[in-house]
Predict the structure.
Amino acid sequence: MSSTVQGLPPNYRTVLDVVEEAGPGGHLTAQEIWVRARALQPRIGFATVHRGLIRLHELGAVMKIDVSGEASAVYEPAASPHAHFRCTGCGAISDLEYAVPAQTVRRLAERHGVAIEREAVTFTGRCANCG
Amino acid sequence: MSSTVQGLPPNYRTVLDVVEEAGPGGHLTAQEIWVRARALQPRIGFATVHRGLIRLHELGAVMKIDVSGEASAVYEPAASPHAHFRCTGCGAISDLEYAVPAQTVRRLAERHGVAIEREAVTFTGRCANCG
DNA sequence: ACTGAGGGTGAGAACCGATTTCACTCCGTA
DNA sequence: TACGGAGTGAAATCGGTTCTCACCCTCAGT
């Protein structure tokens, strides 16, 4: 599954494995990834995990998501763009199937004279359990 | 202009004045707000500014915006919802006229069984100057 | 006026995630 | 073997945010 990325240092590969293991809805923080990575590679340091995430993000293999109102960023495997929902009650983060239409993005970029490379859509509110 | 909020402690009022002074495109960080507030009220402390922003956010008078990839949150007067654009080159933040259509939000909320209270849309890329 | 309670306030410490530093290891090549 | 560059772990550091705590100010009830 992670075979799409070549020539990765072993620890970075471990990080990638952990993120992909969690899947698109995983929403792992760097801390959580570190904990899981240590199960595979007990001597791995937090700094290495962090560097790995940065590298993998640059390579486009993982997405870094800054959820509005959340202290720490979460990571998940690169996948089709989608929005996120954060419950203000329990703090849970879930995926929503939404992306700003490509045509709209293009028109916005043109109108404001900018080049848009990425979008982040976050909704907040109450989930079913927290009513 | 800040007359819509009543019964505010004096320092919080100062904070509100600063934010509204900067206007919708101000995008001030808490630090910047503190600096400007001291021009009006030299003895005001940072903690007070921060508490004021929290209070004003609860009251709905100011918006707190967590820009993706930005270290600190920025604040601006409550206004019609709009998206933000952050240039990865110079770090500038600007407003874009976009909001997720209300009908779409409603449909998403219904489909996933959640109550959506707020949305945050952030684009990142390169501004005209940073090409 | 006096008094007690409660909110507001300033300074600085504490906190926490993210990032950097630094010395060390590993592995390839010459 | 000697060298150099990348990778690595532990710990220090950073920066924004939040908390603590002692003080002050206002105001209601006397």
